[in-house]
Amino acid sequence: MKSKARVKIDLLPTGVPGLDRILGGGIPEFSFNLLAGGVGTGKTTLAQQIAFANATPERPALFFTVLGEPLVKLMRYQQQFDFFDVARVGTAVRVHNLSREVMERDLDKVLARIVAEVDAAGPSIVAVDSFRTVFSAMPTDHGSQVDEFMQRLALTLTAREVTSFLIGEYSEPEMRNPVFTVADGVLWLTQSADRNSMVRKVQVVKQRGTAPMPGLHTMRITDAGIQIFPRMIETPKEPARPRRGEQRACFGIPELDQMMGGGIPVGDAVVLAGPTGTGKTAFGTRFVAEGAAQGESSVILVFEERPQDYLERAGTLGLDLQELVHAGRARVLYLRPLDLSVDETLYEIRESVRELGATRLVIDSLSGFELALAPTFQEDFRESLYRLVTAVTAAGVTVLMTVETLTSSSDLRLLPGQVSFLADDILMLRYVEIEGGLRTIVGIVKMRGSRHTRTFREYEVTNRGVEIGRDMRDYDDILSGTPRLQLRVRGRYDGLTPREADLLDTIVRLRRATLDDIGAESSLPRKEVTDAIARLVALGYVAVEPRARPKTWRAIARPEST
């Protein structure tokens, strides 16, 4: 019987945010690794950051370089990063220069020097920078010696229980170089300029002993050092989102919430589309304020104005978001660099959602978001946005996204960049001309798995917020922008008020309807709907469906035209 016991491979934490995730947990201990890529991609900084994260005076990190004045260069440039600790240089992190051995063009001497320093220090980490320079200084006929040197170096360092990093400038066609074959792990770093933006990425080409994350991952060099933003979606640890319709996230605008059947189903992605000036931001701030009133926290992602300007504008609508920010109930993220990546945005959002325990997210706007991305990421905006929204809504966060549309559009192909596919719900705002004046109306284009009213309603943005007015059932050609008032001939019912007659018309049209269905279609308060239905039942116009759950009514009388 074969034993199923496996040799346990310990993984070293890299100290680089995001890198352990894409490596499958960290760097396998005692592995032989290659950090490869073009000039200026961050290879040296990456090796230094890993070294400082793991080195101790008892098990130091040895950094071999073939550059002149290595310690001076190291102190001058690398100490600018937060991870660099000057007090640990010479004890936990030790620098050795191989220039003399390399200039003698003798690989045996290079290997002997490395082995001597390793045996003397007993290090945990060894890095050689630049490893490619060692080979470049050798005679052109030393090809077989290079292969042998690679094998001997790998065996020597592994036998001494050292985790090693060889740093070199390579291009993609050079991946057939023997160093790629011998290495246990290969990290490939790239940078590309597109117009005025610079984008850095890292890829795990090879990693023995772990299950690395595939694909190219965005990398950024900041004062803190290197940070990596994994592109794969991490399974949320938060409780699973409730079943659709069980809970609702309201706007706090009673008529609008009624139109949506009680509000937005928790965990939905909602697109609020409309031309400039229709009050999209006002709806978003009202959504945040209502969340706070219900004890929820929100994250607001803005691109088109500064956070302070956003908060001050909310104040003109009677909403004090500034107080919510100070109380830790809301956070405004301003991400406007022109080389932004979606992965960075997702990282900032998820960190803020986690820290605040937020259940609502407002992105204002998708149009500004797309413009803020580096051109490289704009090409994949649709796919990237899908990953972002999926990751956030999977944690039960309700997402409201605003998007700019054309005023002249007369059909329902609303959204640029074909992003409507990821929306569970779509609210449309638009201008119409009525009696020589410009009015604004709101309508619900779709709600997945939830009944909603299909009528347009007029609204106005005032210093009290968003106020919903009359419905537009007496108008035709609303989507043309110039509605036509029609004189309707309605059914006449004995003993019914006009409101009760309208509700009966609604039940007739729906055939069978629950209280929520009728409320959503009529946009009336629940008590008024309940009282009206009781009257309709008493007068014999509707009856309860037997055994239907939830309680359902059907019409038993048809309207008679006058």
List the helices and strands and how they pair.
Layout: E1 11-12, H1 19-23, E2 27-28, E3 32-37, H2 43-54, E4 61-65, H3 70-77, E5 93-97, H4 99-103, H5 107-121, E6 125-129, H6 131-136, H7 143-159, E7 163-169, H8 178-182, E8 185-194, E9 197-207, E10 217-222, E11 225-229, E12 248-249, H9 254-259, E13 264-265, E14 269-274, H10 280-293, E15 298-302, H11 307-315, H12 321-326, E16 330-334, H13 342-356, E17 360-364, H14 366-372, H15 375-378, H16 381-393, E18 398-404, E19 425-434, E20 437-447, E21 457-462, E22 465-471, E23 475-476, E24 484-485, H17 498-510, E25 512-514, H18 515-522, H19 526-538, E26 542-544, E27 552-555
Helix pairs in contact: 5-7, 13-16, 17-19
Note the overall shape: elongated
Radius of gyration: 32 Å
Quaternary structure state of the chains depicted: single chain
Range of strand content: 25-35%
Integer average pLDDT: 83
Distance between the termini: 90 Å
The main sheet comes to: 9 strands, mixed
Secondary structure tally: strands: 27
Structural class: alpha/beta
**How are strands sequenced across the largest beta sheet?**
5-4-6-7-3-8-9-10-11
Query: What percent of residues adopt helix (DSSP H or I)?
Result: 25-40%
Q: Total helix count?
A: 19
| Low-pLDDT runs | 408-414
Can you offer a commentary on this structure?
The protein has 562 residues and is an alpha/beta fold. It is built from 19 helices and 27 strands. The strands form six sheets. It has a nine-stranded mixed β-sheet with strand order 5-4-6-7-3-8-9-10-11, sandwiched between helices. Helix 5 (107-121) runs parallel beside helix 7 (143-159), helix 13 (342-356) packs parallel to helix 16 (381-393) and helix 17 crosses helix 19. The termini are far apart.
